[in-house]
Amino acid sequence: MQNWKRWAMLAIGLAVSAVFLYLALDGLNLREVWINMQTANYIWLIPGVLVYFGAGWARTWRWHYLLRPIKAINLRDLFPVVVIGYMGNNVYPFRAGEVIRAWVLKRNEDVAISASLATIIVE
């Protein structure tokens, strides 16, 4: 039964992602995208990636500080949770990534969803 639930959740997640991906890419001119990709200056990816990960670590440290009274969690373990939450904010509407972040923290570290949502709101 548990294995069936996992497959159902995976299927639902993929379906929701496919719907939002379709909505995001509907009407996109792929030829124009390809032309722009060929003329792009990819050297700018290096500082962009560095800034992204630096900001991610700063956000992780901030949330780690807020979570300390609830449960001490290693920064290395908390970083993927933060990144998953921000990815959810980029993909799903209504800042759903924050709820995803609370759910992943519950699953990985057994922190109550209400407690983690409270720290997310304060953050």
Structure characterization notes:
The protein has 123 residues and is an all-alpha fold. The chain folds into two domains: 1-40; 42-123. 80% of the residues lie in helices and 0% in strands. It has helices spanning 2-25, 30-39, 45-67, 75-91, 96-109, 113-122. Helix 3 (45-67) crosses helix 4 (75-91) and helix 4 (75-91) runs antiparallel to helix 5 (96-109). The model has no long low-confidence stretch (mean pLDDT 92).
Straight-line N-to-C gap:
38 Å
Structural class: mainly alpha
Q: If you compute it from the alpha carbons, what radius of gyration comes out, rounded to the nearest whole angstrom? A: 18 Å
Low-confidence stretches: none
The overall pLDDT, averaged over residues, is: 92
What is the makeup of the main sheet? Answer: none
How many domains? 2
Q: What proportion strand?
A: under 5%
**What is the tally of helical segments?**
6
- The best one-word shape is globular
The total of beta strands comes to 0
> Would you list the SSEs in sequence order as H and E?
HHHHHH
Task: Assign a percent range to the helix content.
Answer: over 70%
Would you kindly provide a brief summary of this structure?
With 123 residues, the protein is an all-alpha fold. It contains 6 helices and no strands.
Key structural traits:
123 residues, 6 helices, mainly alpha
SSE topology:
Layout: H1 2-25, H2 30-39, H3 45-67, H4 75-91, H5 96-109, H6 113-122
